[in-house]
Specification:
single chain, 337 residues, alpha/beta, Aminopeptidase, OB fold (Dihydrolipoamide Acetyltransferase, E2P), 2 domains, 14-stranded mixed beta sheet, four-stranded antiparallel beta sheet, 6 helices
Length: 337
């Protein structure tokens, strides 16, 4: 029986020892835990190492198992890279949450959110042990981190970046992505990005559209952003950024929720501007009668929205960003002024 984890070119390792790897592409399999049958839960890792020394850029995807747009971003980045011109090392994990990916769900196999329990616990529960081993065996090797996500089930996103914009390096990393929206967010929710930042690893979260599918235009644009970052880090030769659109800058954001149940229709699309008091959603009953209209509490930009028409009390409507004083801030050499 064919086993992709025993295919030619893959190598089982017990630790991620980057110094022991020679230049070129390495397909590594790192055991992280065991299931109820005693089988190993193996983490596939792509390591592309240049001939010249330089920084280590970590790229992670699918820490939420159903957020998969980051997978082809990683594949295209790694397999199109000219390793002769690479300086430093790229460590890429196409799928972090293997059980969630196989179950097509956001959470880990014990229904916990890996991106809310970092850095886990060495002797904790199922997800906590995995998170602890993942962070200490893999993430601590990074000098910089780009964590790739999408919206969750029933929602869609713009292409946006969450970053602590008070941190100069994270700010620069965010701007180089040239997303539609950049959101200032310090990440105090025990996320991978937030905990990596506390350990001195400048990090950003890139939200690439929608869950459960591949979106070629979003994927291509995210790839351009990561290559721009690598150029800035002198890992690859710099090239002109093909994306001319200036990101919309948001100083904060919040979700708007329903206060009753019914059939929900959200009017604006991701990256649309909305004005205060404009109708953003309607709620109807099962007879087709209008129950309620929801209005924007302030001017803002739609970062993401619900596309699930079945709404109970407390369901998400849309994610509304609060713009900075200059929402399309002047960009000088890629830096927001």
């Amino acid at each position: 029986m064919f086993n992709p984890f025993s295919a030619k070119g893959t190598k089982h390792v017990t630790d991620l020892k980057l110094d022991s790897l020679g230049p070129g592409l390495h397909k590594l399999l790192l055991p992280m835990a065991h299931d109820g049958l005693g089988r190993e839960l193996i983490l596939p890792i792509l390591v592309l190492k240049g001939k010249k020394s330089g920084p280590c850029l970590g790229i992670t995807a699918a820490i939420h198992g159903n957020e998969i747009n980051g997978i082809p971003v990683i594949h295209q980045l790694i397999h199109r890279m000219d390793e002769e011109k690479l300086r430093g090392t790229v460590v890429a994990l196409p799928v972090v949450n293997i059980p969630g990916f196989l179950a097509r769900q956001r959470t880990f196999e014990d229904d916990q959110d890996l991106n809310r329990i970092m850095p886990g616990k060495a002797t904790g529960n199922n997800a906590e042990v995995f998170a602890h081993r993942f962070f200490h065996k893999v993430v601590t090797k990074f000098d910089y981190l780009v964590d790739l996500h999408t919206a969750s089930t029933g929602r869609i996103n713009s292409l946006y970046v969450r970053a602590d914009l008070s941190h100069s390096i994270a700010h620069r990393m965010a701007v180089l992505q040239r997303p539609q929206i950049i959101l200032h967010n310090k990440a105090t929710d025990r996320s991978l990005r937030g905990y990596a930042m506390t350990k001195g690893i400048p990090s950003i979260t890139v939200e690439i559209g929608d869950p459960h599918l591949f979106q070629p235009k979003m994927i291509a644009r995210a790839l351009v952003g990561i290559r721009a970052l690598m150029g800035e880090l002198k890992m690859i030769p710099k090239s002109k950024i093909a994306i001319k659109e200036i990101p919309i800058m948001c100083k904060s954001s919040a979700w708007i929720y329903t206060d009753r149940g019914g059939i929900l229709r959200v009017k604006p699309e991701p990256a649309d501007f909305v004005e205060k008091n404009s109708v953003i959603a309607t709620l109807h009953n099962l007879f087709g009668g209008l129950i309620h209209e929801y209005r924007a509490p302030h001017d803002g930009v739609v970062i993401g929205k619900s596309v699930d028409p079945v709404a109970s009390t407390g369901s998400r409507i849309l994610h509304l960003g609060v713009l900075t004083k200059d929402p399309q801030a002047c960009m000088i050499d890629g830096i927001c002024e």
